[in-house]
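Sat 14:20. Reprocessing the chain from the morning session after the first attempt stalled halfway. Input below, unchanged.
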Amino acid sequence: MGHKIIGRSKEVAQLQSVIESDRAELVAVYGRRRIGKTFLVKEFFNGNFDFYATGIFEGKKKDELLAFCDMLHQKSKSPLPKIKTWMDAFTALRDYLQGIDKKRIVVFLDELPWFDAPSGQFLKAFEWFWNSWGSTKDNLKMIVCGSATTWMTDKFISGKGGLYNRTTERIYLAPFNLQESEALLKHNGIDWDRSMVTDAYMVFGGVPLYLSMLKKHLSLDANIDEMFFREGAPLRDEYAFLFRSLFKDSDFYMRIVDAISSKNMGLSRSDIVAAAKISNNGTLTKALNNLIHCDFIRKYSGYNKKERDSLYQLTDLSILFYKRFVEKYNGKDAHHWSNAIDSPARRAWTGIAFEQVCLLHVPQIKQALGIAGVQTEVSSWRYAGDEYTDGAQIDMLIARRDKTINLCEMKYSDFEYEITPKYNRELRARKETFRRVTKTRHAIHLTFITPWGVKRNANSAIADQNLTLEHLFLNSF
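Finished this time. Tokens:
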């Protein structure tokens, strides 16, 4: 089982424990759209399901019921009773499954939230099916999957109704890290060096579907032109479709993301309210939490700051690229990205995107620093300055339980990064400003993270640690 699955070792182990257990299993697989949930389940079970059905995007109740019953008819190979409601449908499913004499019965319902059409009472019927019968069958392994992460978490996994605490296993699929992305590309015959893999990651993030669309006979730049800028490019309208498929009020969510993406460092809640022209209420709280659960944004605090000072920052690299280069593109240049290779906008973006790559690989950074088992808190720090001292900013610092703080300098470069005398002085001043303003007594290490390392010269000794792409590609498990 699972011979084509790239990465996902933890998730495969979870599924393996499910099929080996001697009890009824209700497994929820969730995560943002395009992340590989359906592929994982189908590949693990080799497509061998005793029953399989998938919801229809924006389908009406009658359409969802018809599709479900059609699959049931194909599996049972016998006429079905007249089905008008979801209670009828799940009664028919129960009757069909009762006739199967096997050591293990596997049922897979894909895109579960889409079944839940308005006024359809799908969830009530599912609750009845599982609580009255499914949970009593020790050989039943029921896998449900959904891209609408908010529905999966709020209504199915953590809902207060009849399914509360009924899931026996929860499998959350996050985007791939760099190592997994590299493995996927190699599996597809693309053998790029790690610099090129990182460049691809900065555009597509760790979304398996996007990475799988890359063509091995094209350069990375040509692939980007093909996928975003040519006439009819497949990912040109992906952003809007992605949000429509995940959130009912997609325009509201996109307004929030538009506001957050306007500042590299992110925005506070009050700034989001002002920029997006929305109300500061529970609806916003839920939307922000949902965006975090979908790995689109992150919530973080400054060093020694309180919860109310938290910022929300865009972390989805594919959306960052879209907002910077695709959203407002109205040209007809099919080679737009290739022709912009030396543009200031592209150079500025690479620096910002590389910082996000580093923030997404904190476990690998900790492993490289030899502190994988040390309790840490990752934050940022900013100081506006005073009459005596200039302002200072640190985009990532790692405060450690062992009374040490890593001040991380994340610098993108095509070659070894060179620390100049001027930059050396700035680093020393920043370090001392941080020590004075925060009044910390912890040891402070300046940690550089660059693609190719720091060039050895008279100024390079200021870097206490020097991490490269090789460290970002570590397996963090």
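The chain has a mean pLDDT of 93.
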